[in-house]
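Section 5.1 Outputs to date
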Amino acid sequence: MSEENPKLAASGSVFAEPLPEGRPPRQVLENLWLFAPNRDTLGGSAWWLETPELPECSGLLIDCPGLNQANLAFLQQRGPGRMVLTSRDGHGRTRRFQEELQWPVSLQEQEAYLLPTVTGLEPFASEHCLGRGYSLRWTPGPTPGSAVLLADTAFHGGPLLFSGRLLSPVAAGEARPLRTRRSFHWSRWLRSLEALQLWLPRSTPVGLASGAGLGALRGEALIADVQKQLEALDWAALRCQEPI
């Protein structure tokens, strides 16, 4: 979709052409919604998480959903929020959403240059706290600026990790790192996962919300225990893994 010569879209917003109708996200938990796979992000999955604890922010949009009337209307109805980008693979039509919603955009600093015309960028370096209970961490590997978001009470009162493409579903209840020909740096990716094991809380299971394609989960949206997924990894085999 070209972003030049804008005209009034069917929704009343200024876009290059009328937006497709689309379908709204589906509710996964009381406080969590999952958007349909977005072809602009290679079939990636975006999430909306309600965050009543954060001041002046009704929720977080994690990665960019498809640009359509249903998604835009859903987000407009939620009030002021914040966009969180877990990697360049999740950018999609960030500029268009930001122009319409006027929300700030959090992302790791190494990939901020990819969005030069987006206002409201708030880059971070290694770690950043969005507010009590919401932490961002730099996890390079899938891309130079890959990052994860940990929400301390989002998963049935316990923590939930939004992993972007750091961990991808491979079967029902299972997730693994998947190296592709587009991956940035495989050894750094594995080091990020090893560091993530130490960073995650150990006293309670942490749920996983991946930003990769979720088809392997067979209709499910979340994985219950990311620590078990990391503990089950065969590190020696992973170090020899070829791109798929």
